[in-house]
């Protein structure tokens, strides 16, 4: 029997914490709190003792929808990268690589262009991974950002790898001939 519940009809003694009603003691509820005396309990005279106490089922925790969607998008992102990698070989393009690419340009009626330059930056973002290529066109430095897994890139060939100590080689904007082959 739970604490605070006394339904002994035969007992002539009325418990200190209960109230006698119709020959038996009504139930009492325990009050939460700190005290220096024994257990403090409060009688329930105002409440309807005939109504049963309703127990609620435990709360089921759900993750926030944006977290679940982010997890699903990460899985789809990895699957897309794996699919592109099985279709064609993509070399490990890192900053400091001198690359030659065949690119199909949509604005130029799908004609293929050959570009040669140095990779000065790479941004890893799954299927949206990009790299920045710097090259000289008519003596003027031109930088282009290419998605690594783009279907417009037909071929990437690494001509040379220079040893660099930075992840972003933006300082080459001032001195382009430093790593030129």
From TrEMBL:
Record key words, sorted: Ribonucleoprotein, Ribosomal protein
GO BP terms, alphabetized: translation
One GO term describing the cellular component: ribonucleoprotein complex
One Pfam family here: Ribosomal_L19
One function term, GO molecular function aspect: structural constituent of ribosome
Keyword Mitochondrion carried by entry: no
UniProt xrefs under InterPro entries: Ribosomal_bL19, Ribosomal_bL19_sf, Translation_prot_SH3-like_sf
Similarity comment: Belongs to the bacterial ribosomal protein bL19 family.
PANTHER family (UniProt xref): RIBOSOMAL PROTEIN L19
Protein's name in the database: 50S ribosomal protein L19, chloroplastic
Taxonomic source organism: Triticum turgidum subsp. durum
């Amino acid at each position: 029997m739970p604490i605070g519940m006394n339904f002994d009809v035969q007992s002539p003694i009325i418990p200190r914490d209960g109230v006698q009603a119709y020959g038996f003691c009504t139930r009492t509820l325990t009050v939460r709190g700190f005290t220096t005396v024994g257990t403090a309990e409060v009688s329930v005279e105002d409440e309807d003792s005939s109504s049963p106490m309703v127990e609620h089922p435990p709360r089921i925790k759900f993750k926030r929808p944006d977290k679940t969607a982010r997890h699903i998008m990460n899985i789809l992102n990895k699957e897309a990268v794996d699919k592109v990698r099985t279709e064609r070989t993509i070399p490990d393009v890192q900053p400091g690589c001198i690359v030659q690419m065949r690119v199909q340009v949509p604005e130029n009626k799908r004609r293929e262009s050959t570009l040669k330059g140095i990779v000065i930056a790479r941004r890893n973002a799954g299927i949206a991974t990009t790299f920045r290529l710097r090259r000289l066109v008519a003596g003027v430095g031109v930088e282009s950002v290419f998605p690594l897994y783009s279907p417009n890139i037909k071929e990437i060939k690494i001509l040379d790898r220079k040893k660099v100590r930075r992840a972003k080689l933006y300082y080459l904007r001032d001195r382009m001939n430093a790593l030129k082959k």
